[in-house]
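Researcher: First entry.
Model:
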Amino acid sequence: GSPQNALTVWKDHMVSQGFGYKLGTDLPGEKRGFIPNSGVYDKAYRGSWNGLTVISISIGQGEVFSTPLQMANLAATIANRGYFVTPHIVKDIQDAELDST
């Protein structure tokens, strides 16, 4: 396929993991990060770009911007065997009984 199609598939995977959008936390001022699409490269390179132009974004470099919370949430999703949990910011938890088993 074309680099444009590959970039679209890659972006869809990134978005499905919470990148490029706010995670919906209760933290005020949350940022969304940025995951580029083919329009970004069409504008920057006047339509003359290929797979080598975007190879660095596959490892999070180049035009990819993510927040520390998005990176932490990705690690949590991997640890939860793919289960995505919306992160919440808490000061403390009171009167919680912990199961020690």
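Researcher: Second entry.
Model:
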Amino acid sequence: MTASDGFKVLSADLQLDANKSAHNTGAYMSRELIVRRGQPVRLVLNFNTSVRVEDRLQFTAGLITTNASTPLLEFNFYDSRSPAVNSWGAQRVETGRNSVTLNVFTPSNAIIGRYILSIHTSEGQSNLASIVLLFNPWAKGDVVYLSDQAERQEYVLSEVGLIYMGTPSYPQYTFWNFGQFQDNILNISLSLLDSTQSFQRNATEDVRKRNNPIHVCRVLSSIGMLIW
């Protein structure tokens, strides 16, 4: 059964600090919800009326690209006591008088990028949050998974490090400030993905491949080669 007539969301608590800590994204300066795929996201929704156990909540996660006003791709799902494994889904953790605490699930091979999460009620479709979904080196089901915590710290979380140049016989290195957590860097990175030749040729096909880190690396590398 879907939500009853007159049923609408008054506010959404994105649990920003808790989610960013759980998803190892707390270093990002943005106050946008930045999370990693294949790992639950906790949300608290407050409604104008009581929520019944039998009320099914319907959601849509719409992937938007730079300067787009409508989603390029959409993924629809309901809350469920037993969400499908490795799929978009939601599960209630707690039901209050006029509130619901949810875990929202994403596949470990989900397309990375910015999503608009919305809910469907008798009042129509309402946007709840803008969510940026990233690859997840902490999730065993993700192809970028790293089992070594020291490697995750060095390759993912460290803002400074070494880059190597030269040849295999005569390698040279220099210190480098990656600055990946600085303000607006994530937006710039997503904009670069939307400026590649692959995206310009066929936006939908390109975006569907962004679940694959190899594709993402290749299209970003192609920008560097064009500049060079």
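Model: Note on the second entry: The first strand starts at residue 9 and ends at 13.
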